[in-house]
Structures are given as C-alpha cells and as structure tokens.
Write a structure and sequence with these properties.
This protein has 174 residues and is mostly helical. The chain is built from 5 helices and no strands. The protein has one domain. The C terminus is likely disordered.
Length: 174
C-alpha cells in the first residue's frame, strides 16, 4: 500500500486500526455536536413558535415544489450532519495542531464564528433561491448563532473526553 511503511509484522494493521479509531472518534464528535445543536434549534423553535429547524429548511431548499412531502426527508438531515462533520473536522485539526486550545471560551468563540458562517450561507440561500423557505430572518439568524455556540461547546467536550481516554490508555500501556 502506498504511503505505509512496515517496520514490523502487523504494522500496517496497527496503522489501519488507528486511522479507523480516529475516524470513529471524529464522526462521534460530529454526531454529538450536530445533534445537540439541532436539539437546541428544535427547542428554540418550540419556544418561539417559529421554523428554526435546519434539516427541514434544507429539505425545503432541496425540494422547493414539495415542501410538505419532503419535510422530514433524509437528505436534509444527511446534509446537515455532513456539514457538521466538516466543521467538526476543522475544529479537531485546529485543536490537534495546537492552533487553538480546546477550552470553553475558545469553543464558544469558534461556535460563534461558525454561526456567522452559517448565517452567511443561509442568507445566500434565502436571497438567491426562487422559492426560499419563509422564516423571520433576524430571529432565525440569532438562534443559528446560539445553536452553533452549543455546537462548538459540544465538540470541545467530546474532543477533550476522547483526548483524556487516549491519555489514560497511553499511561496504562506504558
């Protein structure tokens, strides 16, 4: 296999297993953070009696002529979790390479920044689509920023939990 150097028997298997474990941790981090963020959006939707549900709004964009029939289509949820995986991966890279420490304040700032990116993305969608979802923009954008701050915080919690598990298993092995 290209890029893998065998230093001892089973080395390739160890590299492969380690990569799979890292990938599982990254997916877990993303699923927890994106699900938590989505639950915050659902909660705020109920409190405000508004439509703040990102997967449902994504489905309205993907299926503009059949909004009711595709309201809970898997495509909107899948796209939302895929975008979450992308942002969680960015967080992980920044934390792993010590560009930013995985602290509460930093994760809230990263989530806020991520929220601004989300606002820009939705703003583009709302103003350049022929059939944009009907939403109260100011309220939606505000809840989007709050939900992304939760996303940042949950990413940090799972990342630090994964890191502490790695650190404690390394102590056990040595």
């Amino acid at each position: 296999m290209k890029g893998i150097v065998l230093k001892h028997p089973g080395g390739q298997i160890q590299d492969s297993c380690k990569k799979k474990q890292e990938m599982k941790k990254e997916i877990n981090m993303s699923l927890v953070a994106t699900t938590g963020m989505t639950l915050v959006s659902y909660m705020l939707s109920e409190i405000k009696k508004e439509k703040f549900l990102e997967p449902l709004l994504l489905n309205q964009v993907l299926f503009p002529h059949d909004k009711k029939g595709h309201a809970h289509h898997v495509a909107g949820y899948g796209l939302h979790w895929l975008i979450g995986l992308g942002f969680s991966s960015i967080y992980k890279v920044m934390w792993r390479h010590s560009l930013i420490k995985p602290k509460t304040k930093n994760s809230l700032i990263m989530g806020f920044t991520n929220g601004l990116v989300g606002v820009a993305g939705w703003h583009f969608i709302f103003f350049f689509r022929h059939f944009p979802p009907k939403v109260k923009l100011k309220q939606y954008y505000l809840q989007l920023i709050v939900a992304h701050m939760v996303f940042g915080l949950l990413n940090k919690i799972v990342f630090n939990d994964n890191k502490s598990q790695i650190d404690s298993s390394a102590k056990f092995v040595s």
